[in-house]
Amino acid sequence: MIIISNALVLGATPETHPNAPLIGYQNLVTPGNVTSDTADADYPVTNLANPITAPGARWQAADTTAQTVSVNVATVEPIDYIAIARHNLGSAAISVTVEGSTNDGADWFELVQEVLLANDAPALFRFEPQALTDIRLSLGEGAAPAEIAVLYTGLLLALQRRIYVGHTPMPFGRSAKIVNGRSEGGDFLGRIITSEQRATSVDIKNLTPSWYRAFMDPFIEASKETPFFFAWRPGDYPDETGFAWMTNEPQPQNSRRNGMMQIELQMTGIAP
Q1: Is residue 10 part of a domain?
Q2: Which of 34, 78, 160, 252 could form a disulfide with 129 if both were Cys (CB 3.0 to 4.6 A apart)?
């Protein structure tokens, strides 16, 4: 899911178009700059500084009261998103507001308005690019202690070309390992899903040589180790956002005499 700040104005240029595909791979969260109001002793807030989505690698609040999770980004470079994955904010009915500070947390202002997420799928909050000293999630009271496994914040990569046809949105790219039960007589005894994930691919064409080298290639290099948030058509389908990792080794090709480039991304992501 993508939640857009009410203050963000998108334009008609390729990168600022509402349906420009978005990739959130830059992450300024570290074990030393992330804090929370409370944390369960077994699930410290420093767990948010790694992209592991396993149950034991999450942050969990100590109780069901309102919480804040803060990151001291302290950068002069602009940032425009914060994103979460493997959380329970939807199912536990925990509201979320994104706030920022420019004076080391002495004062806070709203970046993205309060929202109640519809489910526990990956969520990306987008706001106007700006330099901040701190950014935080302000979480309301819930039916259970808040849980988040992955927290990213930084500057989004908006792809130069939009995606139209031939793409399977990540929530629909269901891939599962299933054990079939069958009796000696051949009767069907049921099926057990042992694991489930989401998979998709994107074929991106007509990228200008200078844009690819300046913006796309740093992402391709980072994706060898770094998972990322991906939204294929955020304006029309904001709910179809995933947290994924690359499963191929993308290599660009020159596709036209003028140097235009193309590249295929194959990715697998977590199931909500």
Answers
A1: no
A2: 78
